[in-house]
Amino acid sequence: MRQPNDTKTSDLLGDSCDLAGPVPVKSTQREKAAERARRFRERHGVVAMTVNIKAETLAAFNEWAAAKGKNKAQVIERLIETQLLRKR
After folding, report:
1. What CA–CA distance (Å, rounded) separates 69 from 44?
2. 54 lies in a domain?
3. 69 — alpha (psi -120 to 50), left (phi > 0) or beta?
4. Exposed/middle/buried for 65, CB within 10 Å: 0-12, 13-18, 19+?
């Protein structure tokens, strides 16, 4: 680094040069979680589906899934494949 009173040494970078560069914006926890979820869905070919059903039906389904130890998403996916999309 050149001293202010040094007139013999040339300043190669000049005063306008900022070596650090711009500081990137830090992402929030929510953005990180959303990015992880997006990458997971992209990697596994999964999409979200929202449905409206009666509360009693959902409660019964939740009880059944808990008793059987099943994953609700996998159960619904299998029902759609075997009951609705099957070849007839």
Report:
1. 22
2. yes
3. left
4. middle
d(CA 47, CA 33): 16
In a domain, 68, yes or no: yes
Could you tell me how far CA 10 lies from the centroid of its own chain? 50
Structure tokens at 6: 């040094």
pLDDT of the residue at 65: 95
Which CA distances in Å does 3 have to 13, 15, 17, 20, 71? 14, 13, 17, 21, 69
Count structural domains, the chain.
Answer: 1
Q: Is residue 7 part of a domain?
A: no
- Domain limits for position 50: 29-84
User: Could you give the angle at the alpha carbon of 48 between the alpha carbons of 43 and 50, nearest 5°?
Assistant: 175
10-52 pLDDT per residue, tens: 666 666 666 667 778 888 888 999 999 999 999 999 998 999 9
